[in-house]
């Protein structure tokens, strides 16, 4: 097979050490978070949630939130948690990196300069970070797309299939993994999000290390989607980094499972749901000022004369009510 003769690669986009440091250091820190606690910080802890409507339905006017509080609750929620922020940042960086490399190689357009590439991926990372932090399903979507795409790409690095097989494998993993992460099945959603987050984080750690030490097999890993064979493929350095990726992936998923097993789900959200269900199950009565109504017996419910025939007591009588008829 012919080697890659183009210069459109990630190492040429980041032509100097300062650009590589600016690209790699934030990404490697975010990747460590995703590897070992991505799903835990997205679905369990560090995220806020909107209170259920039923839990506030009986609030009085004195406890009604003002406009500022309503704005804070609606628009400044962190439904994705710290894990969502991390997954959004990683997705923005990977998405811009892929587009900046595939367009010049496939369309023949000029490559971005290092400064332009820096500005584009910083802007995309900020936007995706805000979206994934604000909305939970945006975080799940970004985790599914980036995690399972990079997992398939890492498998291609390890197995070395043909070019068409690589493209097909990445496409299938991207579609299936994203759907599995978005399915509202709490029992299985944690598993798929955990695998996607750990795969994305491990990929980021290995790629950043390759860029900093100058190993092109993993540093230019994106070229495997359009190049049949490249320089440095199958070397001992590539195999060592592939082993490191597998080790990070397995240890990251195990660590995330351990965190969920020991610390559990979000206790504030569980308590809010409990209060909401308890409030809606109270024996309310429309003709009473409070939320409780006295229990009635079986005979009163089915054979009673009704509330209209029950004697009523005047709690705060006036003079007219105190007048009694002359016997």
TrEMBL record:
Residues that span the membrane, as ranges: 20-43, 75-96, 116-133, 140-161, 167-186, 198-221
Domain of life: Eukaryota
Domain TM7S3/TM198-like, first and last residues per copy: 86-214
Compartments where found: Membrane
Keyword Glycosyltransferase: no
Membrane topology: Multi-pass membrane protein
GO cellular component labels: membrane
Record's keyword annotation contains Iron-sulfur: no
Protein name: TM7S3/TM198-like domain-containing protein
């Amino acid at each position: 097979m012919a080697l890659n003769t183009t210069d459109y690669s990630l190492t040429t986009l980041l032509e100097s050490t300062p650009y590589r440091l600016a690209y790699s250091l934030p990404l490697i820190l975010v990747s460590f978070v995703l590897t070992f606690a991505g799903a835990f910080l997205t679905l369990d802890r560090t995220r806020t949630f909107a209170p259920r409507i039923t839990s506030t339905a009986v609030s009085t006017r004195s406890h009604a939130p003002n406009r500022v509080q309503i704005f804070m609750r609606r628009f400044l929620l962190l439904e994705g948690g710290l894990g969502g922020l991390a997954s959004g940042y990683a997705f923005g960086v990977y998405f811009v990196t892929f587009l900046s490399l595939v367009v010049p190689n496939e369309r023949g357009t000029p490559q971005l300069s290092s400064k332009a590439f820096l500005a584009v991926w910083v802007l995309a990372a900020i936007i995706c970070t805000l979206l994934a932090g604000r909305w939970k399903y945006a975080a799940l979507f970004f985790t599914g797309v980036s995690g399972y795409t990079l997992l398939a790409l890492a498998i291609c690095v390890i197995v070395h299939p043909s070019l068409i097989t690589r493209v097909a494998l990445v496409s299938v993993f991207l579609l299936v993994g994203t759907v599995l992460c978005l399915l509202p099945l709490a029992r299985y959603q944690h598993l798929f999000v955990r695998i996607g987050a750990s795969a994305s984080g491990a990929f980021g750690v290995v790629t950043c290390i390759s860029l900093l030490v100058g190993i092109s097999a993993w540093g230019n890993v994106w070229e495997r989607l359009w190049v049949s064979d490249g320089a440095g493929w199958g070397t001992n350095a590539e195999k060592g980094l592939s082993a490191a990726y597998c080790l990070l992936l397995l240890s990251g998923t195990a660590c995330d499972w351990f965190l969920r097993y020991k610390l559990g789900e979000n206790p504030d959200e569980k308590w809010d749901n409990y209060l909401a269900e308890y409030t809606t199950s109270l024996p309310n009565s429309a003709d009473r000022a409070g939320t409780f109504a006295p229990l009635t017996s079986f005979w009163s419910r089915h054979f009673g004369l009704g509330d209209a025939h029950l004697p009523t007591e005047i709690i705060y009588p006036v003079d007219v009510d105190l007048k009694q008829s002359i016997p």
